[in-house]
Design a protein that fits this description.
By secondary structure, the chain is an alpha/beta fold. It has helices at about 1-15, 35-40, 50-60, 70-80, 100-110, 125-130, 145-155, 185-195, 200-225, 240-250, 280-285, 300-305, 305-310; strands at about 25, 45-50, 65, 85-90, 110-120, 155-165, 170-180, 230-235, 260, 275-280, 290-295, 315-320, 325. It is built from 13 helices and 13 strands. The longest helix is centred in the middle third of the chain and has 27 residues, at about 200-225.
Amino acid sequence: MALHFQEFAEHVINDYLSSQNPFVVEIGSNDGIMLRHFVQIGIRHLGIEPSANVAQVAIDNGVNTLCSFFGKDCAYKIVQEYGQADAFLGANVMCHIPYLHSVGEGIKILLKPNGIVIFEDPYLGDIIEKATYDQIYEEHVFFSVSSIRYLFEMYGMEMVDIESQEAHGGSMRYVIAYKGVRPISYRVFKQLEKELGLDRLETYKRFRENCELFRDTLMTLLNSIREQGKRIVGYAATSKSTTLINYCGITTDHIEFISDTTPIKQGKFSPGTHIPIRPHEEFMANYPDYALLFAYNHKEEIMAKEQKFMESGGKWIVYVPKVEVLE
């Protein structure tokens, strides 16, 4: 993800910051993982991060950060202190905001007439196509090109470009500008054509059927492995895993525990099914026969890191884009 955000920052710097002394604002800037690349070359910036402890980490690392939620009042405050922004950025944050019109109102105040809005979030089309139902949980809203286009048209803006991303199992990066300021890429119209089925009930009936098929296939596999007396451990206590575990009915009869490297999660239990979450050291001390990979969106990095597990005969169970065992 660090490399992903570096690429995001470089894309903005190289392709969209042509004015002198530009000013960049990021909503939900976290610990400054993306903004630090603007800091390194002296670009004026401001992160908007509502979590005080996380905002402090960014500040300690030299990233100018305001601890606040973003909206109309926040936008006025920023303009008064810094002036208007050349670029307004976001990554995996818009889908967590319950009232998106507050963001639209704020952007209209904050953004320069020739400014650009660029953000990315999990994409509804990918979720339907891949049946990644584990991304559905309380704080997630899913967007399409047509829905984002409709939203920003209310604020005198239009979608000028999109770019599909591999992050989080399938995301879309949206580029928004004021109407008539920038040419609209053919990619926008091409994607709108592909989305024609997203407004039809039949699409979601097929999605349900695919989810049920994936669930049944996964549970058949887990039950078969356990009947053979083999050990299974979950790998990474993600938010997605909570949805998967409860929807499929996975319990401690199927997996012994979930291995996770995050200290704050260790010693706790998965919501609903109460599967224990234990330090990664326990995974390494006694490798299981199989690891159920909940963080499948980081599959390549994780499998590269866990070569010893595979050398010991360990196998991975993945369920996106299909249920299978990887050796």
